[in-house]
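step 4 of 6: structure.
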Amino acid sequence: MSLNFSFIGAGNLAFHLAKALNSKGFQIKQIYNRTESRAKELAEFTGSEYTSKLPEIDKSGDIYIVAVKDSAIGEVLSQIDFQDKLVVHCSGSQSISVLKKYTKNFGVIYPLQTFSKKREVNFNNIPVYIEANSPENLEILRKIAGVISEKVSTADSEQRLLLHISAVFACNFVNHLYSIAGELLKTKNISFDVLKPLILETALKVQELQPFEAQTGPAVRFDKNIIDKHLEKLADIQEYRQLYELVSKSIFEHHKKLKG
Amino acid sequence: MSLNFSFIGAGNLAFHLAKALNSKGFQIKQIYNRTESRAKELAEFTGSEYTSKLPEIDKSGDIYIVAVKDSAIGEVLSQIDFQDKLVVHCSGSQSISVLKKYTKNFGVIYPLQTFSKKREVNFNNIPVYIEANSPENLEILRKIAGVISEKVSTADSEQRLLLHISAVFACNFVNHLYSIAGELLKTKNISFDVLKPLILETALKVQELQPFEAQTGPAVRFDKNIIDKHLEKLADIQEYRQLYELVSKSIFEHHKKLKG
């Protein structure tokens, strides 16, 4: 395929997706970003033009990848004349239909992964979900996604929303628990580093076992003695205490229900 | 050291600790467990005697490792005459002082890790925290722990309690979030498997970055549009909705505070 891509937005996802496409030989024609330095930075990686001005967006692109903050999609797209080119967004929680008023050809490419600029990722084993307004466009997206990932599936907007919510629990909320754990250790001058083997093993376990089988700790044993001791210790930090109580109760109820 | 060990309790922790000690040449003399089959199973790995009867606990042991459920420690220990041998518990949340009335020589070995019977673990890089009633006993524990782990530190009972609470957040609660994510996907007949690369990357990220830097997702961007959409979708599952709201708010507040 000699299709070329233009990126609207140069955030973390755009960064990794553009680089992945480029590394497989796709031309990245232009990068638009509101902050020019960021557009330039990515453009240097992919050998692309860049701009921070919407009117300067190149009209000769084949496929436009919209990777801006969800709340900005409408505002940005309404200022671009796509001339019915294929426009693709990458958002988990936006319906495909948000693109309808800007072009006749549209779709979604949603990679289920967390992207930070500082971390290289291997796109190859990232599940990528696609959706398109027509079978023809779906085939185009399937081919493109198939070049960067071995795990391409279709998902409608409703399934993608659930995928995104699940990812929020399994990644964003998980990362926040890492944060809280680190904050708690800091009160005793203990480094976050000591948690690293535990964090890694917890994630590795569920690569093999179901989370239900992998669960350990006081809540699943309903060790009230320990739970009460922990709640007492957290008494000063209302937010953490509330979270501790809610999650412990949830673990207990969950296991009671599933064990029958 | 030609010290031998007897284990009181043959749960997941005992299983891995006894095997780790045994693999480094320590003799595991006897395994006690309330359920005999479990004692037998571990004893076969370590070439030990086993029993399910407290009066049959061998009196000639050098060190007794108490690895029973926290709430059972008192009840079990009160039935054994330790003759002032070195008795060690492995609990994060029990003070060292719970052992005082059963022997003159006591201590704690607390490995900061999650243990499941089905998973092999490499003890070598697990942080192990020790505490003892005397400098002499501390030295004995330091030597023993040093044989199985490269990361041995002292921690008093108060520090160990915080280590345990942190581990509950970073492991047990994290694993429960994996569970919830899987449950949500099940409602759309999507396999838990699709989350595995995301879960692993989330854990790998904080091996290098601080959790604060690694945070992504709608809450840290305060993308109210998406958060509201997710809450609406979770409206039927009150428990998950409440958790979503609480953690999102916590992420937002946390980042607002730290960014200043």
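step 5 of 6: annotate
 - DSSP finds ten helices and eight strands in chain A.
 - The first strand of chain A starts at residue 4 and ends at 8.
step 6 of 6: archive
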